[in-house]
Amino acid sequence: MVRLGFIIGFIALLGALLSGLAAYRVHDQELALDRIALARAIDVHASLVQDRLTERELLARVASGLFHAPSVIKPNMLEPLRSAIYAFKTDFVVAGWIARLKPNELDAAQAAIAGAGFPNPTIRAYDDKPINPAEITQPIDVLLDLEPRSNDTRALPGRSYDQDPVRSAMLTRARIEKKSVASDPTPLLRGNGPVGIIVAAPVIPEGATEPAGFVTFSYELASLMLTNDDMSLFSVALRDPRKEGGELVANDQGAVSTRMMAAEAAPSATRTVSFGGRDWQLGYYAKTNSARRAEQTAIIVAAIGFAITAMVCGLFGYVAYNNLRLSREIQVRIGFERRLTAVIDELNHRVKNILAVIQSIVTRTLRHGADIDGARELLIGRIHAMSNVVSLLSESQWQGVKLKGLFEARAIPHADRIAVTGPDIAVSARAAQSLSLLFFELASHSDEGLSLVGKHPHITASWTVTSEGTGEVFHFRWEELNTSEATRRPDSDFGLILLDRVAPEALGGTAKRYFTEASYVYELTAPMETVVDMTERDRTDKISAPVRPAR
């Protein structure tokens, strides 16, 4: 009997030790997994917010760069920029033109506002109180034009922002620093309107030291920084720069409110994003208590272990199975984290490359002395060509683009007059971007004049792949028939650089262009290994493959 009791006691003790060990292991693993998942979800959200902010700040910079500061005050100041602003398809609430008016320009400004059809052209304070022009001795910032025009916005032009503490501080800083600046959170459109942030980009005329005005874009704060999925692991708040210890949060309907931070409820993590020349701090609060959840899971495991102490084999089987399951989950999640990091790094690399190309396009197109109307159309067309090839690459998961797809009507002008022949090869992402800009430049200059026979030139685009030496070579030929050097407009400086240097160097090949007796010809030769770039395709395929646990 004593011996049996000893055995039962030994089994009970062994079961208790094993149950406690299993509970401790499960507690640590669940806690670690929850923390890893929460940290990664926070990093992804902060990265998406930063990308969103970067896109909107880029819009303000591009708009200010395209804006042609007038020598006199005119109505409909945003008319030249309207197509460019909406081409970016951002979710701004209002885009506005705020001019710095001298005292002797107020009468002309009122006439311009009235001529534009706004109901109240009087120059007035931000709270609609009248301003005595005789008391004005310094330039003031006045809203002259805006987009979109609606019942909520038509009454805004004519307001001076010098008395508004938020907008005045923003415009003063933008004027001093001469770069885009974001405001503090403030109600938009009206006092009880949605809370948002305004970014102002100064417009400095050529040869001037002070801005003639500011192009502004306002965004709702909820959709800009505080949006989140209902199924996410956290809620997000923005540190209120206007109030020490204050936070801005958004509800399910997107309404933003202010609350004070509680000392006992510190955020699980904080991240800093940059927008408008200033840093914004996001606080992330976990929706579930990871420690409590891990403790509950550990208690359940221990209870099961104690309940089946007599079943030693079953207990060992359960613990082994549970450990194997948890181990595989950890391996899958670790693999997923590594894969996600690689995807983010690859995305950042490609976004930086695309932004660098766009910056080069903007700089070359808007060079000193360029015609603003022609430059604007070329800039929009070139950016549209880049947007089209990025869309095609996204549809193929960056596995390459069919070469014939770059000749679609949505990608280049006059596509209906281009006869395309050649094998339908899939070119790499890098080659597709270079070739898309190359085809746009060639097509955009093919309709500048009538041909020798009084008709638009007939265009042929053909390519072949030949075996030469140790590898294959890609040959591309563009020919505009019935065209002479006298009837075809010379290529732009940007076009010459792209045709003669950028595109050939990007593909590791050579190019030449010349006129025959009745045609214009451009030829490009490059090795197929750079046109197809299997290394890039293998890398993209590797990071997009599904994650599987290690055996």
UniProtKB/TrEMBL annotation:
It is an enzyme of class 2 (transferase). This is histidine kinase. GO terms for biological process: signal transduction. It comes from the Bacteria. Residues 129-225 form the CHASE domain. It holds the Pfam family CHASE. The lineage of its organism: Bacteria, Pseudomonadati, Pseudomonadota, Alphaproteobacteria, Hyphomicrobiales. One of its GO terms (cellular component) is membrane. Keywords: ATP-binding, Kinase, Membrane, Nucleotide-binding, Phosphoprotein, Transferase, Transmembrane, Transmembrane helix. It catalyses: ATP + protein L-histidine = ADP + protein N-phospho-L-histidine. PANTHER family: HISTIDINE KINASE, TWO-COMPONENT SYSTEM SENSOR PROTEIN. One of its GO terms (molecular function) is protein histidine kinase activity. It comes from Bradyrhizobium amphicarpaeae. PROSITE patterns: CHASE. InterPro entries: CHASE_dom (IPR006189), CHASE_sf (IPR042240), Sig_transdc_His_kinase_HWE (IPR011102). The chain crosses the membrane at residues 298-321. It is found in: Membrane. Its EC number is 2.7.13.3.
